Amino acid sequence: MIQVTWKIKHLLVLVASLSILLLIFIKYNRQKSAENVYNLHLYQDQLEYNKNLLKEASERIQELENKILALESRVPRTYPEVKFLNYLSRKRILITGGAGFVGSHLVDRLMLQGHEVIVADNFFTGRKRNVEHWIGHENFELIHHDIVNPLFIEVDEIYHLASPASPPHYMYNPVKTIKTNTLGTINMLGLARRLNAKILIASTSEVYGDPDIHPQPETYWGHVNPIGPRACYDEGKRVSETLTYAYAKQENMQVRVARIFNTYGPRMHMNDGRVVSNFILQALQNDVITIYGSGEQTRSFQYISDLVDGLVTLMNSNYTLPVNLGNPVEHSINEFASIIKDLVGGRSKINHLAEVEDDPQRRRPDITRAKKYLNWEPKVDLNTGLQKTVDYFRQELHRFKHSQRNKFLPKL
Predict the structure, then answer these.
(1) At what angle do helices 231-251 and 174-195 cross, to 10 degrees?
(2) Within a 13 Å sphere around the CA of 199, how many CA atoms are in the beta-carbon half?
(3) Closest to 155 measured CA to CA, from 141, 145, 137
(4) How high is the pLDDT of residue 62?
């Protein structure tokens, strides 16, 4: 009996101990829960406070930006100094595709000469940044317009440059490319006819296709695949030339046709997929320099200022047949890759990939006609032009990393 009582006492003591421990545990958990709830409320309050601070800071920044814009609007904009022309000498000139690579340099040249320039561009490959240094100038006007649709303005001359010109761009929408070079050309020729304005059509060396004759004279009819991947551009430009001379014959119009060969320089589109821009960007970023095919294909590249000289000279001449504008100095793609690699430096290796379909094997202009009738030939040597282009792309890459402006302004 005494033994049983002793066991019961032990059991009661054990139960009491467990009860005390359970009470302590429950009390501790309640305290922790209360602390957690308190901390959660504190965190939420702090988060809300930080959100309010960020909102206030954003509002203050916006106010400051508005004040800066207001102050800037009071300060007269400065423009490159242009030549003064009287009303007899000054022309109103329309440039379709004027915000693109070639068009923007042509804008600079004509603006500096003192003419009134109107740019029409749908900004598919063109960029406002290429011409923003002229926006607001009394002689300059920028129109967001796709020339597949008619344009009704008053001008004295038209430079019709509108069209994607690099394979990735014109292959992106081949139907649109054909429309630009057919309907767009019809619209511009119709405008020139109504206004009795002189018009220059920017054609291309691609009208020669993969040529059987080397170098290519203007009398060569070409070797073009009409259903190949490049046909939307090649045949589009061939039709553009046909339309031009049909209008000239039927309507007695003043027309000029420039067959433009490979051109490079500042303001080239970084993603245009062309040899010079590809090689320079790959070398600057120490990427592999990719060559499609054997690299024995040849190209001849002219610097942008030489092309602009040729376009303006052709427009001002009395010569009406097509004229090649390009550099007759020929290099293989392998040579270009080595020249650019040495110019840029770095650790890039050269790698060969599969050949591109319908890629011309040889491309070099015969510029006898340009020399004879325009007294024109390229002046800028390859190393000088490539160095300027490398400097531009280096600044462009730096701008992407640090959000800085990289404007290539015309030299006075």
Answers:
(1) 20
(2) 29
(3) 141
(4) 83
For residue range 175-233, what is the model confidence (pLDDT) as tens digits?
A: 899 999 999 999 999 999 999 999 999 999 999 988 888 899 999 998 888 888 888 88
Report pLDDT digits (tens) over 374-395. 999 999 999 899 999 999 988 8
Strand ranges across the sheet with 157-160? 140-144, 116-121, 92-96, 157-160, 198-204, 255-260, 323-325
| Whole-number Å distance between alpha carbons of 118 and 142 | 6
Query: What's the whole-model pTM score?
Result: 0.78
Structural contact between residues 261 and 327, judged by C-beta atoms closer than 8 angstroms: yes
- How far apart are the two ends of the chain, measured CA to CA in Å? 121
Candidate list 159, 170, 208, 233, residue with the active-site label: 233
47-96 pLDDT per residue, tens: 777 778 788 888 888 888 787 777 666 666 788 888 888 988 999 999 99
What does the alpha-carbon distance between residue 47 and residue 66 come to, in Å, rounded to a whole number?
Answer: 29
Residue 233 annotated in active site: yes
Q: Decide if 269 contacts 166 (C-beta within 8 A).
A: yes
